[in-house]
# Entry
Amino acid sequence: MIVPIALQKAPCENTFRAITNALVASSSCDVTGIVAIACARHGCYAPNALVDLFKSEQQKNVDFALLQSIETTGVDPDQGLMLIYDIVCQYFVHLLERIGHKLPPDLEIDRAIGLFHVHAHKAQCFFRYVTSFIPGAGITVGEILESLWSGLNGISPSTRTATLAHRAEVLDDHACDSNHKKLLGITKSLCRRHKEASESLVYSEQYFEQLSQAADPQSVQHWTHQIEAAEAARLATPKVMDIYGAKVRNSATSPEESASASNRAQSAIEIWLEFALMIEEKQYVPILPFCKIL
Amino acid sequence: MLILCFRFVFKRVFVANGNFKADHVRQTKPSNDVWLSEGAGMVPNRQEYFAFLKTAMEKSTVSSFLFAYVAPDANAQ
# Structure
């Protein structure tokens, strides 16, 4: 069956391994990986949402996992849902067209990008999708699956050459065990987190007050209005969150200054220093940001 | 009314992520395996999953950078 691929320019133009991998089919592997959905708050795997990938991370695999997790965890439309996914800025574009008819009616879906992955995106994605700027998201890193993977990676290589049924059951057992351990430890963990949150709330409030006092009260009021307006409109138009970004004026040296600087005769030391800087620039190898932590 | 004020407390927050270490090597001799607990745990029911994938709408959103070398491949199909 020929599946038409509609190519549309996404708001974020960065390329990610999750997407480039999606276009590579493997000949030696019949399953190229897995995708899971977990609760960002408790770190439990969502039932029936640990799906196999056959041609790497395609959107339809994630779509199925999302639909299953909504169903199995009984998400009520009144609750609302937020999906934190490393390439959500692109995944979300056609989400409603793809699975809108299968989603519960009136379910409001918010989207965010985890705090590790967001730095591999364009700068604007940071303001639009980072959990820190989303009201009600809490202090959520949104990368709980990375730590769950680290546990699962201990056993997944041993299932690489097992039969498909055995593999599925071993992965299933370990994921269920992880959830069970979470359940056993949740009381202790919540008590510790509550204490931490209460302590840091006091500190944050003090800090915020000091910061607000240092600024002009009219400006504070203006900024508050701006942010509140942006937060109200961000679900429909994520672009409004760009106001969080600093407006940096292009403060390059004025043409006269640079002209006079270049005309001035340079001393031997200045020439030597300039040459050394040039060599250093040539040797500099930029460290590419990781877009997918395996 | 109170619930509406604190709606964010009840919001379900999901994280999705892929893992490429948990792959599976194609078997030379396919066995007639029996799934004992299919769909009962974290792994979904295979039939439901395959049925979804067959009818799934595919609309990949790729960046303009990828467009250059994906387009000929798409035409070749």
